[in-house]
């Protein structure tokens, strides 16, 4: 599948509030085509660079806002887990109800963070592809210096979010027996077959794996190959996916 179609499909499948935050690949592609046939090359290139910089600013603002929110939510979840384990519930039923709510919130939280990592991946890939297209169509040399700039941007720096994702998965493995996780994820797949974080996360994981798979055309601009961790949560996403994974 061509990147433009894959991006369009992913945007349609992601959270509604995120849809305007992705790379405007379609318009940039049209501009590249127009520039390649324009006699005012310098002016057109300046417009192209201006639009790319605006896109980067959009990515950074959105990414940093989400990252800050996730740091706060991660601390809150850890406090809730500590509180429920240390407090004496009036009944076993109340304890189980609170733990069930925590499990659901952890699954949702994990899913949103996976979506943000994918957000970074897919926008970087889109930038690299549109710059490659630009250089090829115009004979320009924008790709290398611009990608070097992109690599220094906050939206590309996913180490903190990736660390939170791993900590979230560790919490799942430590707190909840394997069979319990599998059952809960199966129930989530059934309940959210048409919409919700679960469905979006499955799509994001598969998109990341697709755009980061090994390729004969791989270059130093490509993201490293993604190997999904052998984690019960991730296996549940794959096995219970309510959408077709191609």
TrEMBL record:
<feature type="domain" description="SPX">
    <location>
        <begin position="1"/>
        <end position="148"/>
    </location>
</feature>
<dbReference type="GO" id="GO:0016036">
    <property type="term" value="P:cellular response to phosphate starvation"/>
</dbReference>
<dbReference type="Pfam" id="PF03105">
    <property type="entry name" value="SPX"/>
</dbReference>
<protein>
    <recommendedName>
        <fullName>SPX domain-containing protein</fullName>
    </recommendedName>
</protein>
<dbReference type="InterPro" id="IPR004331">
    <property type="entry name" value="SPX_dom"/>
</dbReference>
<dbReference type="InterPro" id="IPR031142">
    <property type="entry name" value="SPX_prot"/>
</dbReference>
